[in-house]
């Protein structure tokens, strides 16, 4: 396991992922009923953009920095942007929240969050960050060193029936797309009504087409929808030219917000004139 998210925190991929994650949980908050979120690949939860690792790549400068500098972001992005702004005094950007931190901010007293992180050092950092930022919040559970795919199988169906699984792997293993499909198959078999949100990198668009088809073909998946973002034209299929998010049972209100969010962030995150986004229903009941 070589991947460390601290090199990439706040990049264009995080912006898309976290903006849509925020929208999903905001939608789940609309009803009083409790929700559960399982974050299978949690990372460390908080990133120092001026630290050694983030500074080496500077990826956040063409990600969250551009978004924060843009005037008049739509209402749909305000919750996420305010969460980042609150961490950074005087408009100087240094701290960037990961998916666990953003999710914990959106929990109400009745909600539960389970975080899995396999990398031993990152798991320890995650546990420390959670106990510092969300002390005495028994509702945030850190599964130290736990494999997120195994946890998805073991923890479903959850006692809280409404909720979402966020799957955000590093994609450093060749068979990561197959592992995701397998985990989704197992998860949806046990908990067919849960929402599942999967982040993926886009290099070769043909691989993404196959992945979409395999998810749509799973027997317990009745609704699947995907949003793809290219930050540059995909001429070189060995580079990460963009990323996407696949939603199984997408929260209804989120699909309605996608165009507003993506129309705003795509030109800001563009790295050449080939930047574009698209949405697609892969399966609808
Ligand atoms: C892309 S990062 C997660 C970023 C995080 N979701 C966020 O948005 O802030 C992927 C993380 O998954 C961890 N990881 C890799 N394989 C895993 C597995 N099978 N189960 C749990 N965590 C894993 C890596 O150590 C890494 O920290």
From TrEMBL:
GO terms for cellular component: cytosol. The active site is at 168 (proton acceptor). SUPFAM superfamilies: S-adenosyl-L-methionine-dependent methyltransferases (SSF53335). GO terms for biological process: rRNA base methylation. InterPro entries: RlmJ (IPR007473), SAM-dependent_MTases_sf (IPR029063). S-adenosyl-L-methionine binds at residues 18, 41, 99, 117, 147-148, 168. It is an enzyme of class 2 (transferase). This is Ribosomal RNA large subunit methyltransferase J. It comes from Pseudidiomarina insulisalsae.
């Amino acid at each position: 396991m070589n991947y460390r998210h601290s090199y990439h925190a706040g990049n264009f991929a995080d912006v898309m992922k976290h903006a849509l994650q925020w929208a999903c949980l905001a939608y789940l908050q609309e009803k009083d009923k409790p929700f559960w979120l399982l974050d299978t690949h949690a990372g460390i939860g908080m990133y120092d953009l001026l630290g050694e690792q983030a500074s080496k790549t500077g990826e956040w400068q063409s990600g969250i920095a551009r978004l924060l500098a843009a005037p008049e972001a739509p209402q749909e992005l305000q919750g996420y942007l305010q969460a980042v702004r609150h961490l950074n005094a005087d408009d100087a950007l240094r701290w960037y929240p990961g998916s666990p931190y953003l999710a914990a901010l959106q929990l109400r007293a009745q909600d539960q969050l389970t975080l899995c992180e396999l990398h031993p050092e990152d798991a320890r950092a995650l546990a420390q960050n959670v106990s510092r930022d969300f002390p005495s919040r028994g509702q945030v559970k850190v599964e130290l060193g736990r494999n997120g795919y195994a946890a998805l199988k073991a923890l479903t169906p959850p006692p809280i029936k409404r909720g979402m699984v966020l799957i955000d792997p590093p994609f450093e293993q060749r068979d990561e797309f197959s592992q995701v499909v397998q985990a989704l198959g197992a998860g949806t078999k046990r908990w067919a009504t849960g929402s599942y949100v999967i982040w993926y990198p886009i290099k070769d668009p043909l691989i993404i087409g196959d992945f979409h088809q395999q998810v749509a073909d799973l027997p317990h998946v009745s609704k699947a929808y995907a949003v793809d973002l290219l930050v540059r034209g995909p001429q070189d299929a060995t580079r990460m030219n963009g990323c996407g998010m696949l939603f199984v049972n997408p929260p209804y209100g989120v699909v309605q917000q996608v165009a507003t969010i993506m129309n705003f962030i795509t030109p800001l995150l563009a790295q050449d004139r080939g930047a574009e986004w698209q949405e697609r229903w892969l399966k609808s009941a």
